[in-house]
TrEMBL record:
It catalyses: DNA(n) + a 2'-deoxyribonucleoside 5'-triphosphate = DNA(n+1) + diphosphate. Monomer. Its EC number is 2.7.7.7. The keyword Heme does not apply. The gene is dinB_1. Mg(2+) binds at D12, D106. This is DNA polymerase IV.
Length: 419
DNA sequence: TCTGGGGTCCTAGGACCC
DNA sequence: TCTGGGGTCCTAGGACCC
């Protein structure tokens, strides 16, 4: 268990994408701004605080946001700038302590227990970080400080916007108890509703409910974790580097009939993205999962675990096609699809020339011709061209997918970036 | 007129092995 | 002779987070 003072910080940039837009364009400052989407479609990726006051939030369809806030200004994202400014903020954290756990482009945990003798207590460090980010990067950031990661994260949420909240050891209960359970990490709308059925609305309510009752309601893992968190009995350490456990890509399609040509071309595009990223990481995976979403947001997954890991574009495409056919086979004819996704998990380190040596000859999932060696050679050539001339320079399906790119590719690249 | 794209973790049932 | 129990892996689905 952590001991001593409040030595864990959670620092979280406020309305990050929207704040960057306001930084880049002074005309947007003080006004309701939505990044992404539009009055006629698409989704809002981020909303400024001025827009949030109207109920606009990230993930919301553009037409709904426009209805909630008629003066809302929709802007296109500046994705390269988001990455660059996020990195600049992380560099400031790195000046304080090497123990930084970046958990997304715009937030991180810091363990400052070794820094307090240099920079003073957590409250002073939090103030300094906020001042430096404001002065050197130009962005508002909120900071929470506490004994544990989870509590620090709740504190930063309470601090928003543009604030600092320090939970001194010994004051945890009075801080936590009145807060809504939805602030607990892992409590989303479904869990919140289930807890409300038990009469649990605040973290204090949750802490006083027997673990057994919570576990019966939510399952063992979620229940016991939640109970522990509510009692502030949480000892997760800072993790400075982490390997991704899966690599995936998806594409929303609107509503369309699942005809073979559409499926083939979308899957080929997705497989190429996934396989390329796996190869760039020097990894490959044995489990391939396909997700098909239907009108009405219902979705189905089909997966297959292979004897050997794959990272080859054509092989992944073929396996994904079979899985998609399997998923569609169970659906009534005439069912329309709205999204296709491919994910590869069960990842292992792979040296380039060792991939896919041999699948079982009688394995029905064994890819057809050309051989694995030929496929790897093609992928290797394309990778070389891409690395030299950029991602759009080469591929199996040049320029075919233009109409399906509803989301800017820059946003995809941001989302897939290794933090 | 139902909403993007990237992930993580958990559960439950079944197969299979010892 | 068809009964026990535990462990591991696989598959499908779901909740959640940024």
């Amino acid at each position: 268990m952590p001991t001593g003072g409040a030595t864990i910080l959670h620092a979280d940039l406020d309305a990050f994408y929207a704040s960057v837009e306001q930084l880049l364009n002074p005309a947007l400052r003080g006004r309701p701004v939505a990044v992404g989407g539009g009055p006629t479609g698409g989704v809002v990726l981020a909303a400024s605080y001025e827009a949030k006051r109207f109920g606009v939030s990230g993930g919301m369809p553009g037409w709904r946001a426009a209805r909630l806030c008629p003066e809302l200004l929709f802007v296109r994202g500046h994705f390269a700038e988001y990455q660059q400014l996020g990195d600049a903020v992380m560099a400031i954290f790195g000046d304080v302590t090497p123990l930084v756990e970046r958990i997304s482009i715009d937030e991180a945990f810091l363990d400052v227990s070794g820094a307090t003798h240099l920079f003073g207590p957590a409250a002073a460090i939090g103030r300094d970080i906020r001042a430096r980010v404001r002065a050197e990067v130009g962005l508002p950031i909120s900071v929470g400080a506490a004994r544990t990661k989870h509590l620090a994260k709740i504190a930063s949420q309470v601090a928003k916007p543009d604030g600092l909240v320090v939970v001194e050891p010994g004051t945890e209960r009075e801080f936590l108890d009145p807060l809504p359970v939805s602030l607990v990490w892992g409590v989303g709308p479904v869990t919140q509703a289930r807890l409300a059925d038990l009469g649990v609305r605040t973290i204090g309510d949750l802490a006083q409910t027997p673990s057994r009752a919570v576990e019966r309601l939510l399952g063992h893992a979620v229940g016991s974790k939640l109970s522990a968190m509510a009692r502030d009995d949480d000892a997760r350490r800072i993790v400075t580097a982490r390997h991704a456990g899966s690599v995936g890509a998806q594409s929303a399609l609107g509503r369309r009939a699942p005809d073979p040509e559409t499926i083939r071309s979308v899957l080929a595009h997705l497989a190429e993205r996934v396989a390329r990223r796996l190869r760039d990481k020097g990894r490959a995976g044995r489990t391939v999962t396909v997700r098909v979403r239907f009108a009405g947001l219902r979705s189905v997954t089909r997966s297959r675990t292979l004897a050997q890991p794959v990272a080859t574009t054509l092989t992944l495409t073929e396996i994904a096609e079979r899985l998609t056919q399997a998923a569609l086979a169970d659906q009534p004819s005439g069912t329309e699809i709205t999204l296709l996704a491919i994910s590869v998990s069960n990842l292992a380190e792979q040296r380039v020339l060792q991939l896919e040596l041999d699948l079982e000859p009688d394995d029905p999932w064994r890819p057809g011709s050309p051989t694995g060696a030929a496929r790897r050679a093609v992928d290797g050539s394309l990778d070389t061209i891409r690395h030299r001339f950029g991602n759009d320079a080469a591929g199996y399906l040049p320029a075919l997918m233009g109409d399906l790119r509803s989301v800017p590719d820059a946003f995809r690249e941001l989302a897939e970036h290794d933090l």
